[in-house]
Amino acid sequence: MSQDSEEIKTVEQWRWSEMQGLELVSSPPKTTTARDTEGKVFEERENRGGERRDMEEVSEVKRDGSSLPSTGFGELFRFADGLDYVLMAIGTVGAIVHGSSLPLFLRFFADLVNSFGSNANNIDKMTHEVIKYAFYFLVVGAAIWASSWAEISCWMWTGERQSTKMRIKYLEAALNQDIPFFDTEVRTSDVVFAINTDAVMVQDAISEKLGNFLHYMATFVSGFVVGFTAVWQLALVTLAVVPLIAVIGGVHTTTLAKLSSKSQEALSEAGNIAEQTIARICIVGLRVDIVSL
């Protein structure tokens, strides 16, 4: 009888307000079950599954020695938000204005020099032309100052913001991996190298270098526009050299990309060797201390 009463007490509860009546009330069913726990674990695994698969694919490619899959240029801006798009729009306008200002300045300067010859016998007219073009130079200088500030500050700001988010997401994905993943797939030095070096390269690509690209493209286009409106014969001769410049630039970019890739691999390998050496030194020192004790 005592065993039955103890078994009942383990399954049911006493209602303390009715202790004298010895009324037993069944406890409410618990909602937390093993199935719910498995569901939560499954959801967490699904959330981390995409990040884990990406890192495993990259590590598999590195181990096989094949080249990494190429990524579209638009994928570099996957971490951009509304403020980043506003900053990139302002930086783009600033880069275009800044790049177009140099050919415009040279056109005004050429007109000023021509006015010296055409108004050599009329000092008053020459003075008037000098004052007019001085005002033009002042306006162009103010436009260069404002546009250059907008170009550099906006592109650098948005690049810093996006690269910070990229580092955080990468570190979260690395921390969500299992411990054996770092023993067989990815080395610790690879994670550190990716956060320090690869993120900086992506930041340069989506900030300063992209602004410079827009700047020089605006200079190129506006320069030919000014050239064809001024002396189209000379501009046409200059245009014939553009394909040669494009070929040289393509060869230079390809060679530089290959050398940069080799440099990154060498730095990563050097970091891994240094990490292993320091770890072995610590192990040997620990063994010496244990033996001495």
UniProtKB/TrEMBL annotation:
InterPro entries: ABC1_TM_dom (IPR011527), ABC1_TM_sf (IPR036640), Type_1_exporter (IPR039421). Gene3D superfamilies: ABC transporter type 1, transmembrane domain (1.20.1560.10). It is found in: Cell membrane. It is a multi-pass membrane protein. Pfam families: ABC_membrane. The chain crosses the membrane at residues 85-110, 130-157, 238-257. Residues 89-278 form the ABC transmembrane type-1 domain. GO terms for cellular component: plasma membrane. Keywords: ATP-binding, Glycoprotein, Membrane, Nucleotide-binding, Repeat, Transmembrane, Transmembrane helix, Transport. Residues 24-66 are annotated as: Disordered. One of its GO terms (molecular function) is ATP binding. Residues 33-65 have a biased composition (Basic and acidic residues). It comes from the Eukaryota. PANTHER family: ABC TRANSPORTER B FAMILY, BRACHYTIC2. This is ABC transmembrane type-1 domain-containing protein.
